Amino acid sequence: MKKEILNRMKVVQGDITQLDVDAIVNAANKTLLGGGGVDGAVHRAAGPQLLEECKTIGGCPTGEARITKGYNLKARHVIHTVGPVYKGDPADAEKLAACYRNSMELAVENGVRAIAFPAISCGVYGYPIKDACKIAVDTVSERLSRTPSIEKVVFALFSKGDYDVYTGYINAFSD
Ligand code: AR6
């Protein structure tokens, strides 16, 4: 991977809702009406107006993404995407990659320069973190090489174990 692309990706450990970026991505479900995990944290931090806006959207199919305002977040936007429930089929990987691609496309359309992703599908939806990390980083880096307007992609990992998987995978490109 080119150094220029590596320099535009950053891995952090912590709560995605606290990040000062233009958009944070939410790992939502098809209703877009909130839930647990990162989805619950995003709605709590953004405030009740986020749910009001989400109610007007009418849900989102797996692999697609929808954008709202960020309300009480530092981030101006929330990009809600619906990851696959992990079943171990090849279709899972395609759907997870689509989440990253479609989120980045919405980001570009909305003038987002810095965007943060959680580990989509790696909680309740059961995606193995190593496989999901490779899909996330490979898909994002491929898109970044064709998307000059996005300056920074932050991968925000909640646990130290997930953070170590991401840093290990990304650092291997610069060795
Ligand atoms: N910041 C960053 N990452 C977080 C945070 C946070 N504040 N909280 C949790 N994570 P999950 P999924 C990590 O379950 O697997 C919801 O109920 C977490 O450790 O949030 O896509 C939705 O409504 C894990 O690595 O999302 C759906 O029903 C990652 O975020 C369902 O869960 C994703 O875990 C979606 O499941």
Question: How would you describe this protein?
Answer:
This protein has 175 residues and is an alpha/beta fold. The chain has a single domain, classed as Leucine Aminopeptidase, subunit E, domain 1, CATH 3.40.220.10. It has 6 helices and 6 strands. Strands 1-6-5-2-4-3 form a 6-stranded mixed β-sheet, with helices on both faces. Strand 5 (114-117), helix 5 (129-144) and strand 6 (152-157) form a beta-alpha-beta unit. Helix 4 packs parallel to helix 5 (129-144). The longest helix is centred in the middle third of the chain and has 20 residues, at 90-109. It is globular and about 45 Å long. The mean pLDDT is 97. Ligand AR6 is lined by residues 15-17, 27-29, 35-39, 41, 83, 118-125, 156, 158-159, 162.
Question: What is the strand and helix layout of this fold?
Answer:
Layout lengths: L2 H4 L2 E5 L9 E6 L8 H10 L1 H8 L9 E5 L7 E6 L7 H20 L4 E4 L11 H16 L7 E6 L2 H15 L1
Parallel strand pairs: 1-6, 2-4, 2-5, 5-6
Antiparallel strand pairs: 3-4
The protein binds ligand AR6.
Notable features of this structure?
175 residues; globular; Leucine Aminopeptidase, subunit E, domain 1; 6-stranded mixed beta sheet; alpha/beta; 6 strands; binds ligand AR6
